[in-house]
Amino acid sequence: MYNIELLSDRIAAASLERRRNRETDRQDRIFNAKVRTIGIDKVALESQVNERKKKEEAEAESLKAHAADAVCNDKAACLLDQRQLKDERLLQGAIEDFRLNFQPRWSRREYDLSNPDKVKNQDRIQMLPGLVGEDPDSQGRLKKQQEQLREWSVQQQHELATARHQQRLEEHQYDQDVVALDFKALQLQKIEEERRRAAALATKDFNLAKAAENAEKRWKEWQQEEEDNRTDILNQLQGELLSKRQEQGISVLGLPRLRPDSCKGLTNEQLQHIIDCHQQQIEEKRRSIEWNEPLSSRLVVQAEQQQEEVHQDRCCVASAHTALLLERQQARINKQLRRTLDNTNTQLAEAHHEQKKYLDNVYTNIPDDSYFSQFNTSSR
After folding, report:
1. Do 230 and 223 touch, CB atoms closer than 8 A?
2. CA distances from 246 to 236, 241, 260 (A)
C-alpha cells in the first residue's frame, strides 16, 4: 500500500553500499597487475614530484633571468641607437652650419655664371621700349666664359697629365716592388733549398753513421753469439753430460754406490765380469745336464715341450672360434632388439594417431574470450 522506508532499511542499504565500494576498491587493487606485482613507492613518487617541481622552478628562474637580461640588452641597444641618431643629427647640423658660414653660394667658382642678382647689381641702363632683356655686355661675358673654359681645360689637362705621370710613377714603383719581392723570394727560396740540402746531407750522414753503427753492433753481436755457441758446444762436448768417463758416476759415499743422474753405464771390467759369470753359469748347467741326465730324460723333456706348444695352439684357435661365435650371437641379438624397437615405435605412433583423432572428435568447442571472462570476477 504505502512504501515506507524504515531506519533499519536505510542503515542496511548504507552498509551494503559501503561493502560494494570496498569490494570495488579491492578489485581495482588486486586486478591491477602493475600495482599488485610492483607496488607503489609513495616516498619515491613524492621525492620525484618534489624534484620535478624544483626543476621547473629552476627553469622558471632561468627563463626570468634570461628575460631580464634580454630586456636590459634591448634597453641598452635602444639607448645606443638613440645616441647614434643624436650624434648623426648633431653632425648633420654642424655640417650645415659649416656650409652656411664658410661655404656660401657666392664663394663658389661658377657662381658668376648663375648669379641671379648680377643684373640687379649692375648700373641701370636706359633701354628703348621693345628691347627688354637685351644684354649689351654679352660679348665681354662670352669672352670671359671662353677664357674661363680655356683655363679650366688647361687645368684639367694639367691635372690629367699629372695623374698620368703619378700613375706611371706608381706603376714603376709597383714594378720595382714586385721585382724586389721576387728577388727576395728567390733569395729565400735559395736559402730554403740550401737549408733543406744541408738538412738532407746531415740526415744522410746520420743515417749512414747509424747504419754503420748498427751493422757493427750486429757484427759484434753475431761474433759474440758465435763465440758463445762455440763455447757452449765445447762445454757440452767436454762436459760430464756427453763424456764417457765412468769416474763421474761414482758416488762420494764410496765405490759401490753410483750417482743415477751422472751414471754412464757399467765399466768394461764390470761388463766383462758379468759376461764371464753368465758364460760360467751356462757351462755349469750344460755340464750338469750332460753328466747327470740320460738321453731318455732329455727326449721326455722335448716331448713335453712339444705337447705344451700344441696345447697352447689349440687353446688359441678355440678362443678365436669362441670369440667369433659370440660376436655373431651379439649381432643377431642387436638385430632382434632393433626389430622389436621398430615394432614398438610403430604401435605407439598408431595409438597416438588414434588418440589424436578421438580427441579431435570429442573436443570440438574452442574456448573464446567469454569463457575466460567468467574468472576473476571477485576479489574473494
Report:
1. no
2. 17, 11, 12
CA-wise closest residue to 102 among 111, 94, 112: 94
Query: What is the secondary structure of 136-199 as a DSSP string?
Result: TTHHHHHHHHHHHHHHHHHHHHHHHHHHHHHHHHHHHHHHHHHHHHHHHHHHHHHHHHHHHHHH
pTM (2 decimals)? 0.27
pLDDT tens by residue, 2-21: 556 677 788 888 889 999 99
Please give the Cα distance from 117 to 106 (Å, whole number). 11
Cα–Cα–Cα angle for 227, 229, 235, rounded to 5 degrees: 100
d(CA 156, CA 125): 38
Question: Does pLDDT of 235 surpass 80?
Answer: no
At residue 50, φ and ψ (nearest 5 deg) are: -65, -40
Question: What is the rounded CA–CA span in Å between residue 268 and residue 247?
Answer: 12
- What is the pairing mode between strands 254-258 and 250-251? antiparallel
Mark out the alpha helices in the chain (DSSP H runs): 7-31, 33-37, 42-102, 118-121, 138-238, 268-292, 295-362, 369-372
